[in-house]
Write a structure and sequence with these properties.
Oligomer: heterodimer
Strand content of chain A: over 45%
Number of helices of chain B: 0
Distance between the termini of chain A: 37 Å
Structural class of chain A: mainly beta
Radius of gyration of chain A: 13 Å
Largest sheet of chain B: 6 strands, mixed
Distance between the termini of chain B: 40 Å
Number of strands of chain B: 11
């Protein structure tokens, strides 16, 4: 089956630093990658959608200058949280899709970010 | 607006059957997904329905009624490992997934 990896799985950083999270599709080419954020006891919130080689499409209310997304290849997308603050502490999950409606998105294991 | 409703929490007994309901309102419709999410982990895919009716997959079944904007996930022969949150998500006309807040299922011995 399709496997998506994320790295790191856990990160603790000081306020004001930047954190980069990688999302890789290991055995398929992902036409589209999605970045979600999930706060405790809440549903997934889509942050942005990225297609390989083009700029990401951000959801309303998500600051594109704060959450930098790069989708440089069909197997790798990165999310950089710039100048992280405690309120950015959350569970960040990526998913990858092949663009076919009938298929589901394949989720990475998630990255838990704690900003002190 | 687009909206997904599902109960916040349900409790069931090991070995029993539980039905988790979901109602949706979306701009267009391209299918209804159910995901399972254990605490601290990413969601895992359970089922996809785009036509009316019941899809059975082992102990789990999913039902869809497009005219009613309604779906349910049926879990049979409950096991303790089924304790998790179950997320309902509808795909709209732009192929975006609209997520429900999830139903936390607690299984008691």
């Amino acid at each position: 089956g399709a496997v998506v990896s994320q790295h790191p799985s856990w990160v603790i950083c000081k306020s004001g630093t930047s954190v980069k999270i990688e999302c890789r599709s290991l055995d398929f080419q992902a036409t589209t990658m999605f970045w979600y954020r999930q706060f405790p006891k809440q549903s997934l919130m889509l942050m942005a959608t990225s297609n390989e080689g083009s700029k990401a499409t951000y959801e309303q209310g998500v600051e594109k200058d704060k959450f930098l997304i790069n989708h440089a290849s069909l197997t790798l997308s990165t999310l950089t949280v710039t100048s992280a603050h405690p309120e950015d502490s959350s569970f960040y999950i990526c998913s990858a899709g092949t663009g076919t409606v009938m298929e589901t998105q394949y989720f990475g294991p998630g990255t838990r970010l704690l900003v002190l | 607006g687009q909206n997904i409703d599902q109960p916040t929490e349900m409790t069931a007994t090991e070995g029993a059957i539980v039905q988790i309901n979901c109602t949706y309102q979306t701009s267009g419709f391209n299918g209804l997904f159910w995901y399972q999410q254990h605490a601290g982990e990413a969601p895992t895919f359970l089922s996809y329905n785009v036509l009316d009716g019941l899809e059975e997959k082992g102990r789990f079944s999913s039902f869809l009624s497009r005219s009613k904007g309604y779906s349910y996930l049926l879990l049979k022969e409950l096991q303790m490992k089924d304790s998790a949150s179950y997320l309902c998500a509808a795909m709209d006309s732009n192929y975006q997934l609209i997520w429900g807040a999830g139903t936390k299922l607690i299984i008691k011995p």
